[in-house]
Every structure is written in C-alpha cells, then in structure tokens.
C-alpha cells in the first residue's frame, strides 16, 4: 500500500508543479500584456483620434509658388524673384513616358490605389509606433497631402494615419490627374529646383516638353535624396542611382533588355547646371532696389509685409520697369572702359534719368551685385559731393533774381561766418583763386570762395529748400534725409547720392519741371490683371523756366570752356554739367545733362575715404598726371561722356531752350557783414596780389598805384534771414565799380575813410 500511495503522492506533486508553472507563465504573460497595453495606449489613442488634428478642407489648395519676373522697358526679362526655382506647368506638357518613368519609381500603383498603398502603409505604421527607423511608404497622393495640409505636424504614428485619411479624402474630391500635376509641380529635385519644369531647365537646359524618358528616369532617381544624388557634387553616387533606376525600368517593362545593354554601365549624367542664360534671373542693383521698394516702401502688393512678401516671391507677378537694357549695358561698359582696374578698390556709380519722364534708364550700383559680398547699391549711397553741388546754389540764386553776368569775388583766402558755430568762422584756403568776375565764369572755373559767399548771399536755408524741391524722390525728402545748411555747403559738406544729383539735374534739363524718378511702369498678377499702372504726375514748375534755362546755359560753359572742357559730346551735341572734387581727392563727381538724359557719375572708395592719388592708386597715374589726384573732370567726366555718347547715338540732336535776355545791367553781389562796400572818393586801389593758383580777371580802373586812397564806406545790407524761404526774396546787390574790403579786418594803411564808416 505504501508504494501505491507514494506513487499517487508523487503524481499529484508533479501535476501541482506543472499547474504552478502554468500559473506563473500565465501571470507573467498577463503582466507583460498589461505593461504593453499601458505603453502603447497613448499611441493607439492618438492614432484613433488623429482626425481631430486638422480640419478637413482639402479642395482649398494653397497657391503654388510661382516665380515673379522683372522686365525692362522693352519687355525683355531682366530678373526674377523666387523663394525656390519653381515654375508651374500643365501635366499635359509632360511627355507620357517621362510620367511613366517617375511613377514606376515613386508610385507604381498610383493609377490603382485610392490614395494609400495599404501594405506599405501598415509596415510604416508598425515600425514608427515601435520607435524604429522612420518609414515613409507615401504614395504620390500622400506626398501632396503632406505638402498642402500637414506642414508643421510632428512625424509620428498619428501623422501617418492623418496623412492616409486625408489622402483618401483627397482622391474622392480631386481627380488623379490634378493630384499628379500638383506633385510634378512641387517635388524637390535638388539645386533649388521645385517641380519638373524647373529641373528640366537646370539639369538639361530644356523645356519640360523636350524631356526624354531617360531624362525623366534621371530626375526620378533624384526624388528620394536630391542632395545625395546631386550629379555635380556627387557624380559617382548619382550615376549609381541612375543605373538602379534604369534596372527598375527594365523590371517594369519601360525599357527592354537590349535598350538597357545599349545604354551601358556609364550612362551620361548632367555635368553642368543652370545651362540657361543667367542674365535672365540674375540679381542686380536695379532689380534689388525694385524688390526693396515693393516690399518696404509701397503697398502695391499688399497692406502688410507678409502679404507683399508672399505675392512677390510666390505670386508669379510680372513687374515691368523703366530700365533701358541698351542704356544699362552702355553704362556698365563706360565704367569698364574708362575706370582702370585697381587694387585700392576704387569704383564708380551712375544713375541716368529720362529728362521728360523721370524714368530710371540706367543704374550702376558698383562693380557688380554679389549676394553676401557686394550688395550695397552705390547709386543710392550718399557721399560728399565736392563742387558738383554748386548747380543747386546757382539755381537758387537765379530764381532769386541774380543774373549770370553779375559780379562776385572769388579771391583766396576767404573767411565767412559760420551759422552753425559763430565762434569758428568758415575759412577757405585751397583751390582756385579768382578776383571779382561774373558768376558765369565762377561757375565754369568752380571757384569755391565765390560760391561759398553766394550760398550765404542767397541764404543757406533757402538753398537747402531749393535742393529738396529740385531733387525730391522716394529716396530724398525732408522725412528721409536731412540736408544741413552748413557754411561749407558749397564745397560739398553734405552727402548726396548719384540718384539725388541726377534728379536735381533733371529739373534744370527739363526747363524747371521736376518729375520724381521712378522705376516701375506696370505690375500684372499671374493672370495678367493689372495691379498697378504708373501715372504721370501733374506738371508743376519747380523752378521758373527762365531760371532753369539760365542755369543750363551757364553750365554749358563748364563743358565748352570750363573744368570739363576735355569731355564734350560727339556731334557738338548741346550738353551742360558740373564737376565736383572733394577735399583730398576722396570723392569725384560729374553731373551732366542734355534735353534727353540727366546723368550723375561718382567715383571713389566704397569702403572709405581713400585719397585717389598716384601713390594710393598707381593705376590712375597716367590720367592724374601732375595733378594732386583724381578730379571730377577725370574719370567721372570720362565715364559720363562715354555713356552719353553711346546712349544718344541715333537720337535727334536737340538744343536747350533759349535763356532769357538780361533784364538789367550786371550788379555786384556781396555778402553783408563779410564784404563791406565803399565808394572811392579819391585815389586808386592797387590790384590785389596773387595768392594760390590764380586766374586773373582785372576790373576796369584797377591799377597798382601806391598812394593815399580816400573812401566813403556805405551802409551794409543784410543777407536773407534764415526763416525766409521765399525763393524770390531778392539778394544783396550793389552797383559796380565800388571798393570792397573784409569787414573784420583793418583797412590798409594807405586807405582813409570819410563819413559812413560802419
């Protein structure tokens, strides 16, 4: 019995151990399942509720990014604005075998599925939910959904479910052909190309209509990893990928085995990108300024910056500008021909305006626009003007009633009051000295002492006001830039740009009618609807025609007989201008005009105030010669002449409007408080001794006689009050033949005074 019970006991123990093991396994399994459910429950819940992330609005596709284009005055494309190189095209323009090659590689079931490839989709969901390598498995429809509706969402299991949901919805509402067109217009293909049209141009120099199936196969191979398969940067990897694609085309029947053998193992791949002419899409100083205006200084493209930005870079607008491409090429060529290349970095800038309309016909902003290196537009950058600013003072004086034959003293040295600092008078000691002579001659010879006096005779504030009126533009106004009424105004203390100077010259060339410079004629949207049309402003007489025509007549002499006499235009074409050279030869200018074009040229160091001497710029030595450095009559005038000769070629030779005849005899201009007038009672005043570089003009009756001179000092007049901005307020004048002396200095010991001494 004991053996029997022992057997039963052992059997029961074995069964109990088995049950115990099963219970442990079951418990462990339960715990594992519970833990697993706890871990994945959030993911499952998120997947189940993914549809709540984005409201379904599938048919409202966002606008495709379209390149905006810029055209010159003749309709020639000169630039573009784009965030990416994307060009919208119709799928009807894509060869069918190209479409087939792309589908074979990217979505070979596109025509059969309902937006989702279920097998690939399930595989991706499981991998992504386990935290494994992210898998795509996206159909073409899903990729379109990703770009249109899911940007910015976290890429997790919820994302894939949402993408699949939207893909199926999209296929119910939008035809497959439209979806495929969308895909082909937006897919990234490397080298900043978006869409197959842009890629066709960049890689093959073709229109999409001209692509072959092999071209399409190459592009299809780029889609997976455009940077890695870049044929320029990674040619070996790119070719290996291309071979994989070709083998895939054999598998799908798009290529025969024989065709594949004929292609070989080293098929050609693009070796150069951007085969199309670069000038069509290059960035220039002009097109960049147009862009800046549309984004920051105009509401043509929208009331907010975001609207303007989106329209300009994505809206496919067409911007028709004033630029004359032939004139632009002539301007660039003139700079290259006349300004020697130099290690000092001396450069030139130019602006040329249509006199009658104010249209900007040419703009040279420097040696060439290079993003991140040379972006500063020197045509709009302000620099000290030297004597070129004198034409503004001339215009203000003539409007106030001064006549070109009126006399003024330009003898060096001269000391003037300084309204900005009465304790430190303004003194001129350098330049050309010219005894009393006509304002016309003083302009031709650019006499600093004469013009410094004239600016105060007219009134510094009034001269500044005239400058604003003559040169007003979107770049120059009292709100955008302050012109200071410096005592040194006539010698170029204020900084102005070539645009400012050309705008001022346009007023004189147009008989006193100022038309503000502009760059844009018309803007159309992608459908051809006109968004903006330039309207010519109402004609306003900024300066009296008589004053403007007189100024032009005086300035003709600068080219005929004055500082720019070596640069007359061809065919004896009437032209007027003014040179300018800043102290130490740091800035050089020429501003000149005809009845057709007003053009300003600046030459200098864009990065500083380098003295343009033979020592600093040895490449300029042959032109500088024995002079101290570069002057306005040198490179600026030479560039101006070269450009103006070319741009006027074939144009009618026009003359300026005739200046009015003098209405009175010439008078003596003088600066009260600085110059004191006196009548000679007896004796003869000796002629002044030359100082500095002198151009001699002797007044009638002036002889060198050492005797006692008796004078009657007259009561001085007054200059224009700073508050008086009336452009017609008369200036201090007096009859000719009087003796003038510096009020602040004692009279020569040979001079005696009678009554009337101040």
Description:
By secondary structure, the chain is of the alpha+beta class. Among the domains are: 2-48; 68-263, Penicillin binding protein transpeptidase fold (Orthogonal Bundle); 384-517 and 537-647, DD-peptidase/beta-lactamase superfamily (Beta-lactamase, 3-Layer(aba) Sandwich). A hairpin with a 5-residue loop joins strand 6 (347-354) and strand 7. Helix 1 (2-48) crosses helix 5 (157-173) and helix 17 packs across helix 18 (498-509). Residues 31-56, 275-280 and 692-705 have low confidence and may be disordered.
DSSP strand tally: 25
Q: If you average the pLDDT, what whole number results?
A: 86
Binned, the helix content reads 25-40%
Q: Given the structure, what is the number of helices?
A: 21
Which stretches of 5+ consecutive residues score pLDDT under 50? 31-56, 275-280, 692-705
Instruction: Write down the overall geometry.
Output: elongated
- How would you sum up the major sheet? 5 strands, mixed
Task: Using the coordinates shown, work out and report the CATH topology of the domain at 384-517 and 537-647.
Answer: Beta-lactamase
Quote the distance from N terminus to C terminus. Answer: 159 Å
Within CATH, the superfamily of the domain at 384-517 and 537-647 carries the name DD-peptidase/beta-lactamase superfamily
CATH uppermost class of the domain at 384-517 and 537-647: Alpha Beta
CATH architecture of the domain at 384-517 and 537-647: 3-Layer(aba) Sandwich
The gyration radius over C-alpha positions equals: 40 Å
The assigned structural class equals: alpha+beta
Percentage beta strand = 5-15%
Can you list the strand order of the major beta sheet?
2-1-5-14-15
């Amino acid at each position: 019995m004991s053996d029997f019970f022992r057997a039963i006991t052992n059997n029961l123990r074995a069964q109990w151990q088995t049950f115990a093991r099963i219970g442990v396994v079951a418990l462990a399994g339960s715990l594992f399942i519970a833990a697993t459910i706890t871990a994945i429950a959030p993911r499952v819940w998120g997947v189940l509720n993914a549809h709540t992330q984005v409201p379904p609005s599938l048919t409202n596709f966002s606008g495709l990014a379209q390149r905006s284009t810029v055209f010159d005055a003749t309709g020639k494309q000169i630039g573009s604005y784009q965030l990416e190189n994307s060009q919208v095209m119709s799928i009807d323009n894509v060869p069918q075998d190209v479409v087939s090659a792309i589908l074979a590689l990217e979505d070979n079931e596109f025509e059969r599925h309902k937006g989702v490839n279920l097998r690939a989709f399930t595989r991706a969901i499981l991998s992504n939910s386990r935290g494994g390598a992210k898998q795509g498995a996206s159909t073409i429809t899903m990729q379109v959904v990703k770009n249109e509706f899911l940007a910015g969402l976290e890429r997790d299991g919820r994302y894939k479910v949402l993408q699949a949901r939207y893909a199926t919805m999209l296929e119910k509402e939008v035809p497959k052909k439209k979806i495929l067109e969308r895909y082909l217009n937006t897919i990234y293909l490397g080298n900043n190309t978006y869409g197959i049209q842009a890629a066709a141009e960049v890689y093959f120099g073709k229109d999409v209509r001209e692509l072959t199936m092999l071209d399409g196969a190459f592009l299809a191979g780029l889609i997976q990893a455009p940077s890695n398969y870049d044929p320029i940067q990674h040619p070996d990897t790119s070719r290996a990928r291309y071979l994989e694609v070709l083998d895939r085309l054999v598998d799908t029947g798009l290529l025969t085995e024989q065709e594949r053998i004929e292609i070989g193992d080293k098929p050609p791949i693009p070796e150069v990108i951007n085969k199309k002419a670069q000038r069509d899409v290059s960035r220039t100083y002009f097109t960049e300024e147009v862009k800046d205006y549309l984004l920051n200084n105009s509401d043509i493209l929208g009331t907010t910056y975001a609207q303007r930005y989106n329209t300009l870079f994505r809206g496919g607008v067409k911007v028709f500008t004033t630029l004359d491409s032939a004139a632009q090429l002539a301007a660039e060529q003139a700079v290259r021909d006349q300004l020697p290349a130099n290690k000092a970095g001396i450069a030139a800038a130019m602006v040329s305006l249509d006199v009658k309309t104010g249209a900007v016909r040419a703009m040279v902003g420097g040696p060439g626009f290079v993003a991140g290196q040379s972006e500063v537009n020197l045509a709009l950058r302000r620099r000290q003007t030297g004597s070129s600013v004198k034409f503004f003072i001339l215009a203000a004086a003539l409007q106030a009633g001064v006549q070109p034959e009126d006399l003024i003293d330009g003898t060096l040295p001269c000391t003037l009051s300084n309204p900005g600092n009465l304790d430190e008078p303004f003194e001129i000691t350098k330049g050309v000295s010219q005894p009393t002579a006509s304002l016309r001659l003083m302009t031709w010879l650019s006499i600093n002492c004469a013009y410094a006096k004239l600016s105060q005779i007219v009134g510094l504030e009034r001269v500044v006001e005239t400058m604003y009126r003559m040169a007003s533009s979107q770049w120059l106004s009292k709100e955008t830039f302050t012109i200071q009424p410096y005592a040194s105004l006539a010698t170029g203390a204020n900084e102005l740009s070539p645009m400012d100077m050309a705008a001022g010259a346009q007023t004189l060339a147009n008989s006193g009618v100022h038309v503000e410079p502009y760059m844009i004629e018309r803007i159309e949207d992608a459908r051809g609807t006109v968004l903006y049309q330039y309207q010519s402003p109402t004609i306003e007489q900024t300066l009296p025609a008589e004053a403007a025509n007189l100024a032009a007549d005086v300035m003709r002499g600068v080219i005929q007989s004055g500082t720019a006499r070596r640069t007359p235009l061809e065919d004896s074409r009437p032209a007027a201008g003014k040179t300018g050279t800043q102290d130490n030869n740091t800035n050089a200018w020429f501003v000149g005009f005809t009845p057709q074009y007003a053009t300003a040229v600046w030459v200098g160091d864009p990065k500083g105030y380098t003295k343009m001497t033979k020592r600093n710029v040895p490449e300029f030595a042959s032109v500088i010669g024995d002079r101290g450095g570069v002057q306005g009559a040198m490179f600026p005038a030479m560039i101006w002449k070269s450009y103006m000769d070319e741009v006027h070629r074939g144009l009618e030779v026009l003359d300026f409007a005739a200046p009015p005849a003098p209405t009175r005899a010439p008078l003596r201009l003088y600066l009260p408080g600085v110059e004191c007038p006196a009548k000679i009672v007896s004796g003869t005043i000796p002629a002044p001794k030359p100082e500095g570089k002198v151009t001699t003009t002797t007044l009638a009756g002036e002889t060198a006689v050492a005797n006692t001179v008796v004078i009657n000092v007259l009561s001085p007049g007054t200059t224009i009050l700073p508050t008086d901005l009336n452009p017609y307020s008369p200036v201090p004048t007096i009859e000719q033949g009087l003796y003038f002396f510096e009020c602040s200095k004692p009279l020569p010991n040979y001079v005696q005074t009678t009554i009337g001494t101040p």
